[in-house]
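thought: fold this chain, then report.
action: predict
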Amino acid sequence: MSLDSSRDALAARDLLTTAAREAGQVAFAYFRAGARTSAAVRSKAGGSPVTEADLAADAFLKRRLGEAFPEAGWLSEETADDPARLDRRSLIVVDPIDGTRAFIDGDPRWTVSIALIVDGRPAAGVVHAPALEETFAAARGAGAHLNGKPLAPSSGRAGPDYTAAGPKPILNAMGARLGATMDVRPFVPSLAYRMCLAASGALDFAVAGPNSHDWDIAAADLILEEAGGRLVESAGERLRYNRAHIRRSPLLGTPDALAPQLLEAFRVATGA
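observation:
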């Protein structure tokens, strides 16, 4: 597939959407709403869990997307990183189950997250929540959608109240800086889904603590941007991908209209 036009980005979005839904079906076979997964679970190095559902969905996506984008590199939470990706113009970034602990415990707020990176920025992205029957998708220059309907973030009001999700210490510190009341929503286990809630206007903004990875955020980054928002670190610049270093400092997902005041408060709250 060519990667040099908006038409190509739309075709890639549609392909990623189909693949995400199919991978979601693979994982969903192991999901038990309100109960522990039927999948085998083990601990990875560092202690985070991985299930046979993560690995099955990852293997499916690597095969399916490798055939569709043979020229692209590959970066996934469940695959050993190959530095050869750094020499590729394009990159597929995958989290086969974002929110594995939620998946294990029967919480429906887990997602399949896939992005196609071209020249360092997402060109197409999908965040699919199988248990919620929600699919967020975006293509560069073609807007962002939830189940086919256009997305728009918060209207851009300047407070005094904000609805947000993320680490409470950061959010409370931001509220103090803004002189605003923070309605902190319960923890959203999938970081990709959390950022998509900011893209849809369900949240005014969302925050991630330090040490998220590119596979957690790449698809949601484009969805936020195409909805009229941005995902940034404290410097406020658009994120770049396909770097050797894939861990991130704290992140702010915000509508463009709220970005000036929220970013200043975010910098203070995170000590940046």
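thought: worth noting. Residues 161-270 form a domain with the D-Maltodextrin-Binding Protein; domain 2 fold (CATH 3.40.190.80).
final: tokens above.
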